[in-house]
Amino acid sequence: MTPPSLDQLIQDPAKAAILSPEIAQALLIGLASIQPLLVQRALMGPLEKTGEEDLLTIDQVAARLKLSQYRTYELCRQGDLKAIRLGKSVRVKPSDLQAYVSEHGG
Fold first, then answer.
1. Average pLDDT, the chain
2. How far apart are CA 6 and CA 90, in angstroms?
């Protein structure tokens, strides 16, 4: 028997009572891993459409530049690559990445 999806459990919560302990545990672990993201997103309100893509993480920028994560952080810290600090996180606008690549012969 295929375990019910989250949608099915939301529509019929009684199905949760007949789940095996293993499936219940797997569903709880999955929910726990996305719960902070769902709460954060819910508190942010509607997305504003700026015509620009989502901000890029340092991992994404490093992959596009084919640099290490450390070197990418250094470019941002030194101001060579314009970045946005969100608490302890660093993000880069796609347009700022493109400007850096254009300016540095990429």
1. 87
2. 33
Q: How many Å apart are CA 1 and CA 40, to the nearest integer?
A: 35
Q: Which parts of the chain register pLDDT below 50?
A: none
Starting at the earlier edge strand, list the strands of the sheet with 89-92.
Answer: 56-57, 89-92, 84-86
Alpha-carbon gap, residue 42 to 81, rounded angstroms? 31
Here the tokens at position 28 are 């709880």
Distance spanning both ends of the chain, measured CA to CA: 54
Report how many domains make up the chain: 2
- Coil/strand/helix, residue 95: helix
Beta strand spans in the chain (E)? 56-57, 84-86, 89-92
Tell me, yes or no, whether 36 and 71 share the same domain.
no
Please indicate, yes or no, if residue 1 is contained in any of the structural domains: no
What is the 8-class DSSP label of residue 85?
A: E
Whether this model's pTM surpasses 0.85:
no
